[in-house]
Write a structure and sequence with these properties.
Chain lengths: 464, 252, 203
């Protein structure tokens, strides 16, 4: 009975890495909580409202998607649809080829990670350069992001400085200021040479067709100031009904993600640049991406599609803090990933069926989620699904429950076991008869067995 | 289902579900629960056929097994009286977990009905019976662990209300109160490394506050933490809040 | 592409078909997101300036102060929105080099860019830029210092008020302080891709 993969990964994680992840997630979480509760009278009410708005969106996508499409087109955007990752990659390529474009700069978008766009474009001779500082460093190192908001939460400045040196970005200097300046200098030339700026969208308002992007670094602004074409990859769940709903969602997103009132840049985009504007895109392409989302929508876990990718659930998660993001073997780590990744995997669900097990079900993720997703309930549903699918990865380390359930539904047998269980007091640990108890005893002492004592007391006492 | 959707308490007859942990290891907690409830004027019925709430199977992912145990529990705790458990997580199993696992079952209504009259002990005393204080004296600095399944329920505020009203009790603050102890049922054996690391972190925070004892409304967290502490050769004293209330009565 | 559209919409319809009822759209009161710890100052500029300072931005009320700031840091090469040039021309000392056309082949030749703001949000210290109101996207972004020229009556009280009045413009940008990152070990660094110094100059 092997322990779970994520536990094995955590056990191998170098101590300094774990300490870095633990410290920065804890700090962000504490700042987030202090800010929300200082500034708002009813943060939990706000979370419930935001969750309600997003749930409404999900359950009305059949009408909202065509409505936003019409709005976007009226605003001058070209709308594309991609049912699969392959279709989404192909759509980007098609747009680029039509313009004879060969260079793309990319602001941080989770969807592009999901569809492995960079890899696909490289195979077609197109450079797709990450511009978010963290993502840029990940790309240099052929590494993978380990957090959805803080991609290099697992890296320290020494590793980054070494990598910059290796890639010709300057002699070793691990001052974060220097690292940032060097990336600034290198990347601004890349923006200016790029044909296409690719972004995601945090929200799309159905009412106005505005794409809303939030960033802190200014890389998405640059990606939309220098290149002549803008492509936005948008998951079909990103809609919000009205502009004013953004007041709720923007306030919650920035506080939940980075403990800011607002991120530094909030961009509202309705179309190609104004006629009087010398810089910026002449074309705006919006690609709506499904890539498994309609399947999630059809499942009982559809609430996970409310997610606004703030990262608060991973910052608070005690398992994420011990294991770090790469342990989840997927684009989305942490509690949100433990639900979303196996669902998006579709037929490959069994390969990620252990992820929903990686939780003590403590509920901290639900308590912080700005859109009030009941993550523990969804984890439970997926555990049931993993069990029914007979996924070996999900079963690892989990004691079988069938015999126990039989015992616990037969009072006479139960009582006998309560009395008979006394035997464990006299057994050395290694001879414990039950595997879970043996695993328990490796790192914890079991209390004395007192099976049946309470019932005996209750029977024999003189009732007051 | 939320525990807020429960039936208001009218009478003082209750059914006690001792929970499997108290049945097997912590008999004194069950005794304290009886004595505390009786002090609050309740008449207690202990259905002999009771076993377990089914939570290990639900959390372990075996819902078919969990439903089997829940059905047994529903049959065992028939009637209309409130069902009281000295455990936040077992109570949450009955009012939240079980209905989740029965969403598509024909007997959902019976499961929900049980959930609506299920209470964690402290929640029941304060929010069910309306107690606002507890008599007696208990001289101790107490670290109160927020058992995770009491999140969003009335249990932790209720425990604090009663504990703080007892003369001699000092509830001490400690770091990262909202964090889990790392038990998590089968999680503790399937994820031994992470579970242990979480437990050690919790113990570190608790020890830094130098309490006389560690209390909770859930014995599973305490079993994990005290088992870990004992294994490391640094045992800690643990008490269920019910035991503190019962012991305080001795000097009332 | 149309087939992907059909596939997705059919998938969505099929997914939603079993639902007995659809979740209604909740209504909510914008007072709920008003920051309670910020007392409404009598003067919107004062409130805005305090919030901008809190996010490390630089509120200024006099052109002389702006020139002093630029001079002190030797930021003497810049760009000025041609529409604002008549107004600022006399303010810059002779040893400043200020251009009214932004040359994208020389982005690093500009220490500062001066453009017009379309508004501001007092509650958050946010400047609002629009595409039609900004003479050059790059000039407002690439130089180390960005100066947004603001009028007092353009200041909205809070996010909800600014959302209610979102201009009809292809690219509205809310700027809340200098560009920043905490990607490297959580350490705050300002001036990543955008300005390291964000000035709001009250006209
Ligand atoms: S699930 Fe909730 S908390 Fe986690 S990233 Fe998504 S919105 Fe944030």
């Amino acid at each position: 009975m092997a322990q779970q993969l994520i536990d094995q990964f955590a056990a191998r994680l170098p101590a300094d890495r774990r300490a870095a992840v633990y410290q920065s997630t804890k700090t962000t979480h504490e700042k987030r909580t202090a800010m929300l509760f200082d500034q708002f009278a009813e943060p939990h009410r706000l979370r419930a409202l935001a969750g309600g708005i997003k749930q409404h969106v999900l359950e009305n996508l059949d009408t909202l998607l065509p409505a936003v499409e019409a709005k976007l087109q009226a605003n001058g955007a070209q709308v594309h649809w991609a049912a699969t990752a392959e279709a989404a990659c192909a759509a980007v390529l098609r747009i680029m080829q039509a313009r004879g474009a060969t260079k793309l700069v990319k602001a941080k978008t989770m969807v592009s990670e999901e569809i492995a766009l960079e890899h696909f474009l490289a195979a077609h001779g197109i450079e797709a350069l990450e511009t978010d500082l963290g993502e840029f460093i990940v790309q240099l190192d052929h590494d993978r992001p380990s957090h959805i908001v803080r991609p290099i939460i697992h890296k320290n400045r020494r590793e980054i400085a070494q990598s910059f040196e290796r890639h010709g970005l300057g002699a070793y200097d691990d001052d974060p200021q220097t690292i940032t300046r060097r990336a600034r200098q290198f990347l601004r030339q890349k923006y200016l040479q790029a044909d296409v700026g690719l972004t995601g969208a945090n929200f799309v308002s159905v009412e106005s067709g505005r794409l809303v992007l939030v960033t802190n670094e200014g890389n998405s602004r640059f990606s939309l100031a220098a290149p002549k074409c803008h492509i936005a990859l948008v998951g079909i769940e990103k809609l919000v009904p009205r502009d004013r709903d953004l007041g709720l969602l923007l306030n919650l997103l920035a506080r939940s993600a980075t403990a800011q009132q607002l991120t530094v840049y909030t961009e509202f985009i309705t179309g190609p640049k104004a006629a009087t504007q010398p810089d910026g895109p002449e074309e705006l392409h919006v690609i709506f991406v499904d890539n498994g989302r309609t399947d999630v929508l059809a499942s009982e876990c559809r609430a996970i599609l409310r997610c606004i990718r703030c990262g608060a659930c991973m910052n608070v998660c005690p398992v994420y803090r011990q294991a770090s993001g790469h342990a989840y073997r997927s684009v989305y780590p942490g509690p949100v990933g433990a639900v979303l990744s196996p669902l998006l995997a579709g037929k490959k669900f069994p390969e990620l069926a252990d992820l929903p097990k990686a939780s003590s079900l403590c509920g901290a993720c639900h308590e912080v989620c700005p859109v009030d997703i009941p993550i523990p309930d969804l984890l439970l549903r997926l555990r049931d699904q993993g069990k029914r699918a007979g996924a070996p990865l999900a079963a690892a380390g989990t004691p079988p429950m069938g015999a126990w359930a039989l015992l616990a539904s037969q009072p006479a047998a139960w009582k006998a076991a309560l009395l008979g269980g006394k035997i464990i007091n006299y057994l050395p640990t290694k001879l414990l008869p039950v595997p879970p108890l043996r695993a328990w005893e490796k790192s914890r002492t079991l209390p004395e067995w007192r099976g049946g004592e309470f019932r005996r007391w209750l029977r024999h006492r003189t009732t007051p | 289902m939320l525990n807020a959707e429960r039936k208001p308490v009218t009478g003082k007859r209750v059914q006690l579900m001792a929970t499997c942990l108290c049945d097997a290891f912590y008999d004194d907690v069950a005794r304290a629960t009886v004595e505390v409830l009786e002090h609050a004027g309740c008449t207690i019925d202990f259905p002999e056929g009771q076993t377990c709430c089914g939570q290990p199977a639900l959390n372990g992912g075996d819902w078919a097994a969990a439903r089997k145990v829940v059905r047994h529990t529903v049959r065992t705790f028939a009637g209309e009286d409130p069902v009281i458990l000295p455990s936040g997580s077992c109570a949450a199993m009955l009012f939240h977990g079980a209905p989740l696992a029965f969403e598509h079952e024909p007997d959902l209504a019976a499961v929900e009905a049980l959930g609506r009259r299920t209470w964690e002990l402290l929640d029941f005393l304060v929010n069910g019976l309306g107690l606002t204080s507890w008599p007696g004296r208990y001289d101790a600095r107490i670290a109160l662990h927020r058992a995770c399944h009491a999140r969003g329920t009335g249990s932790l505020p209720a425990a604090l209300t009663l504990l703080r009203s007892i003369r001699g009790v000092e509830v001490v603050e400690f770091g990262e109160l909202e964090q889990c102890c790392g038990f998590g049922g089968t999680f503790s054996v399937a994820f031994p490394h992470i579970s242990q690391a979480m437990g050690d972190l919790k113990l570190e925070h608790i020890r830094a506050a130098r309490p006389d004892l560690l209390a909770s409304v859930d014995m599973s967290c305490l079993m994990h933490l005290s088992g870990r502490a004992a294994h490391e050769g640094q045992p800690i004293k643990i008490r269920h809040v019910a035991q503190i209330l019962r012991d305080a009565l001795a000097s009332a | 592409m149309s087939s992907d559209r059909d596939t997705i919409l059919a998938g969505v319809r099929a997914a939603l078909a079993p639902l007995a009822a659809r979740a209604p759209l909740p209504d909510w009161d914008r007072d709920l997101v008003r920051v309670r710890t910020l007392q409404p100052a009598a003067d919107p500029w004062a409130r805005f300036a305090a919030r901008l300072t809190a996010v490390n931005g630089t509120p200024l009320t006099a052109v002389a102060d702006l020139v002093a700031l630029l001079e002190k840091n030797q930021w003497r090469r810049g760009y000025c929105d041609p529409a604002l040039w008549p107004q600022f021309q006399g303010a810059f000392p002779a040893h400043f080099t200020v251009e009214t056309a932004f040359d994208r082949t020389r982005v690093d030749d500009y220490d500062f860019g001066l453009t017009a703001a379309a508004g501001a949000i007092a509650e958050t210290g946010t400047l609002i830029l629009t595409d039609r109101g900004t003479s050059s996207r790059l000039a407002a972004l690439a130089p180390w210092v960005h100066i947004a020229v603001l009028r007092r009556e353009q200041i909205y009280a809070d996010i909800s008020a600014a959302l209610a009045a979102l201009p009809d413009d292809p690219n509205v940008i809310w700027v809340t302080g200098p560009s920043k990152t905490a990607d490297v070990e959580g350490i705050l660094i300002e001036g990543v891709h955008g300005p390291g110094v964000q000035v709001a100059l009250l006209q």
